Amino acid sequence: MITKPLIKMEKVSKKFPNVIALDNVDFSLIKGEIHALLGENGAGKTTLMKILFGMLKPDSGTIYINGKKVNITSPRDAMQHKIGMVHQHFMLVDSLTVLENIALSYEKKPIIDYNEIEKKIKEISERYNFYVDPKSKIWQLSVGEQQKVEIIKALCGDVDVLILDEPTSVLTPIEVEELFKALNAMRKQGKSIIFITHKLDEAISISDRITVLRKGKVVGVVKPSEVTKSDLVKMMVGREIAEMINKDKYKSNENNIPLVEVENLVVFNDRGLVAVNGASFVLYPGEILGIAGITGNGQRELAEALIGARRVSHGKIKILGINTTNKKTRDIIKLGVSYIPEDRIRFGILPNLSVTENLLLTNYDDPRFSRKLTVNYHSFRNVALNLIKEFNIVTPNLQTPAKFLSGGNLQKLLIARSAVKEPKLIIVSNPTSGLDVATVALVHEWLIRMKKKNVGIILISEDLEEIIKLSDKIIVLKEGKITGNFVGEAKITEVATAMTTKVST
Amino acid sequence: MRVKLEKRVQISKYEIIAVRIASIVLALLSIGLLFIVSGIDPFYAYSVILSGVFGSTFGISEVIVKSIPIGLCSLGLSLAYTAKVWNIGSDGQLIMGAIFATWVALFSNFPQVLILPSMFLAGFIGGLVWATVPAFLKSKYNVNEVIVTLMMNYISLNLLDYLLSGPWRGHGVFNYPITDEFPKFARLPSIPGTRIHYPTLILLILLTFLILFVMNRTKFGLEIKAMGDNLEAARISGIDTFKNSLIVMMISGGLAGIAGVGEAAGIQYRLIRNISPGYGYSAIIPAWIGGFNPVVVLVASLFVSALFVGGNIAKVSLGLSYGLINVFNGVILIFLISSEYLVGYRVRIEWT
Amino acid sequence: MDIVTSLLLESIKASTPLLLATLGEIYTERSGILNLGIEGIMAIGAFTGFFVAYTTRSLPLSLLAAATIGILLSSLHAISSITFKANQTVSGLALAMLGLGISSVAGSKYVGLPLTLTLQPIRIPYLASVPIAGAFFNQDFLVYFSLILSIFMWFFLNRTKYGLQIIAVGENPSAADASGINVELVRYLCTLFGGALEGLAGAYISLAYLPGWIDGMTQGRGWIAIALTVLSLWDPLKGILVALAFGSIDALQYVLQPYGIPVSLLNSLPYVVTIVVMAVATILLAKRRVRPPSALGTPYIRE
Fold it and tell me: Which of A78, A359, B74, C267 is deepest in the core (most CB within 10 A)?
């Protein structure tokens, strides 16, 4: 059956400095289908959709809607063509209410009629079984609720086409089910959906057709019924991948001295609200402790409290038997603690400083290359060159400012930085988000190598599969409380259930 | 035809220098337009200024004279700006340095040989103390340091007014708001035939290399560079951001204070109301031209100093007010910071 | 007229340039642009207002000219900080220097010339005779204008689509962009609007508060307005209160003078109070939910 496509993108190309993001990509969407756009991180999925939504300008290529050539140069144009997009990083104004956020996109009259918008929200909420309080401010909502706001916002514009960018990455498994139900309902009403994902199972279970992208090129357009999972993997990655798994899981460590002991920890966030609420756990050397949970449930605050960069208001932290509660970060680092933060560009990298200076950031007071007041850059040079080789960091030279490195290389840089001193404890947060498969494997392999060297690892991640694969023990963090505690092999469903536990306050 | 801006990946040092020089030239050309608007032939104006500045040994020596306070303030600012601490208070800190030094010169009973060294020390402390208020408020409570340092400038001017109109007014000066002249042992020697008080100049050069060393070879230098580039990353790496922003602000205040000592003890030989004709504000420009690199900042200070001398000449021979220097400062600064964006791009023209 | 009323009358007059400048900066900052150049814009507005009134003898024309020059000067800041993504702190400082410089150069021939044409009080019948509060109804046109403007600006910001757009652009420009708002356009308009009000603020000083032209007659009011913007919590209505409070410091100086405090020290009062108030406000703000616009001072760069 040949159906005339609703949207057709033809020969779209886009170049960024250093990389070709899209290379003559063709894409088509049929009315009433859910179309998955599958590919690794960096394959160009989001770039392609940002072009369709008018947020990026293609270098070349044309877009047709209903067979007519169109020129979409801004999100406003896209909305006029009845295209809506739910971005991976939500596009909501935190300090405004749900109502105000929606009014922002769709109010036509100069003076805002909030009653009318509220009515519209209610109508859509009922139709798709979403509920959010229109009067609450965005920052008061959970990530899952925020996503609902995004979807309602898009639907308020009476869109025909809804683009969702990695919508499940921030959802608990139960929320994912709810989302899929809503998407199916939308399909029934004749809406078309583009679903960006790098997760095979999702693509197979929800979509009618799958377009696979690899390194900016279309590898194929397939129907889920006609391919196997391993076919898709091969299309996505271009080869078979060896998965790195923590093979020798949990051994009893009760006779050892604990590496980290956290007792009844209470920590506040930047807004002055409780972020970590009475967390306790113990970590022994040579263990990987996975902390599962959706980002924003206290993970960053917990990590920063451990490293001494955030005040502990109640409770106790002991590292290597030493009380480190509210001790200086510098002194905690000296004990052999390394922290690889989430959102590396925001928290980890010095963008305008050189690769050398970035490698030195947590190491410059190491006596091997410093004196009391001075840094010996000369003696660090060889160390830096070796690190670049060992961790395969691609950089023109040691003087290159870090901002010119790719995301994967930045993560390798952070790992290399924490490997300069032999660490005893590594705290690492979302270490593989946004990385391609090869770099993910490299990161996982490093973590397991460290574990074998008897290093203790606290692995904070919202990627549940990553946690399950690597951890000896798992705790689940929800709204600052520990809602699940697993030792040894854990089932993904059990952990997932703990992630959705209602927290009573 | 289409003009396209392409992001570029690597920028060489020479390209940066070329763009900066180009933006200064463009700024000077735009000021030429302002001359035209105000009915002055820009070629005539610039030629008068140029020949006045570079046409005589006096002009050149004056450029060096004024580069001393500008350079000292600018060095301090470079240190603070590296850590993204926006000290705009050099002018007030300079005044406080001069006030402290004047106290030593006129009212202390220190032994004569110790007077000059004590004046430098007192001036350094004066500027440092004055910078402590904004430094503390900024690093402890994140109070906007731009506003606080500016307010401190106004307060220091009023304090100076107060001292000169009352307690410190000189005996043999009728009703002028100035102090008595400093005794001979409280004056800095100059290169004969010029007003170049060389002890301060030597100090400036030594400090330039000291700060170069601090920035490029010490832990502290690395720490403030890290803070300036990404405060969050610096904080979670264990850098004491509170202590460091306090220190950079205080040192930059101290250096401005030394500039005040030079002006009082090396040029005026007394305290006057106009002890700083805005050196502290002008010092912002060399810091930006030099990209906070002390040696380049020192050279750029000579350029800004030449503008100052040129402004004086314009005042006398073209009848333009001293505010002209602010016009130069403002226009050059706007062009400089706007050019930084263009440095990151390559302009390509496509003919289609 | 009793002392309280006459002090209030003076305070309102003194607060008007502060209010106008603060209102301008509130909109500029709500859109995410920090304009530290107010002092320069006010200076050039003051001179332009004086100059046009002196030469054309038309007050409407001179107010119009002051607003226009404010727009012109602030457009430099808009170009450098919005289009060229330059450092807004430094760009604002450059603007301040430029405005002070140009007004000083252009005004050097006019210093101290008498200005006979000044803004005169317009008495509002009945209301003006109310004790104390009557002081608000015996003022000149710009006073009434600035008070009404505050109310209008509050309404516009909080009740209209365009106000919501300004807030969104200042809080989260990417979100605003994704909602189809032209981020740069909104920022340009707010910066230019702010410039217009700051130009008027300057003209008020030279046409009503201290009629005539003296170099540097803004005396740091532009910087104080930046502190008042923080203090007003970026709310035009609260702007009236904080401006009035600071205006009364000017009046207070006259009250304190007979007590033998030296004038030069009294002159420091507004600056000392600014520092104290700025510090207290910042410390209190950190503990409360009210925060500066999240994107204040950061240029928006679409990837």
Answer: B74
Contacts of C272 in chain B (CB under 8 A): 151, 155
* pLDDT, position A246: 64
Residues of chain C contacting residue B327, judged by C-beta atoms under 8 Å apart: 97-98, 101-102, 105
**Above 80 in pLDDT, residue A240?**
no
State the average pLDDT for chain A: 89
CB burial string A189-200: b at 16+ within 10 A, e below: eebbbbbbbbbb
DSSP A1-69: -----SEEEEEEEEEETTEEEEEEEEEEE-TT-EEEEEE-TTSSHHHHHHHHTTSS--SEEEEEETTEE
Provide the ipTM. Answer: 0.91
Helix (H, G, I), strand (E, B) or coil at B322: coil
Whether the CB-CB separation of A454 and A427 falls below 8 Å is answered with no
Taking 80 as the threshold, does the pLDDT of residue A287 lie above it?
A: yes
Cα separation, C295 vs B107, in Å, equals 51
> Cα-Cα-Cα-Cα dihedral of A198, A204, A210, A214, to 10°?
30
pTM here is 0.90
Q: Do A110 and C176 touch (CB under 8 A)?
A: no
β-pairing verdict for A19-29 and B345-350: unpaired
pLDDT over 50 at C252, yes or no: yes
Domain boundaries, chain C: 3-121+137-288
Instruction: Please give the C-alpha separations between residue C230 and each of B142, C165, C242, in angstroms, as whole numbers.
Output: 13, 21, 10
Look at residue B1 in the predicted model and tell me its pLDDT.
Answer: 54
Record: contact C84-B38, CB cut-off 8 A: no
A76/C180 touch (CB, cutoff 8 Å), yes or no: yes
DSSP A111: B
SS3 assignment, position B129: helix
Which residues does chain C have within 8 Å of residue B137's beta carbon, measured at their own beta carbons? 275, 279, 282
C98/B334 touch (CB, cutoff 8 Å), yes or no: yes
pLDDT band at B351 (very low <50, low <70, confident <90, very high): low
Distance CA C35, CA C21 (A): 11
Rounded to 5°, the CA angle C262-C267-C271 comes to 135
Query: How far apart, in whole angstroms, are the C-alpha atoms of residue B261 and residue B257?
Result: 6
Contacts of A339 in chain B (CB under 8 A): 236
User: In chain C, pLDDT over 90 holds for what percent of residues?
Assistant: 65
Cβ contact C95–B334 (<8 Å): yes
pLDDT, tens digit (0-9, with 9 covering 90-100), for A140-173: 888 888 999 999 998 888 899 999 999 988 787 8
- Tell which CATH architecture fits domain C3-121+137-288: Orthogonal Bundle (1.10)
Hey, is the C-beta of A112 within 8 angstroms of any chain C C-beta?
A: yes
In angstroms, the CA A176 to CA A361 distance is: 40
Residue C251 has pLDDT above 90, yes or no: no
Contact B12, A396 (CB under 8 A): no
On the 0-12 / 13-18 / 19+ scale of CB atoms within 10 A, B107 is exposed
Window from A349-353, B91-95, B135-139, C124-128 with minimum mean pLDDT: C124-128
E strands in A168-273: 192-197, 209-214, 217-222, 260-268
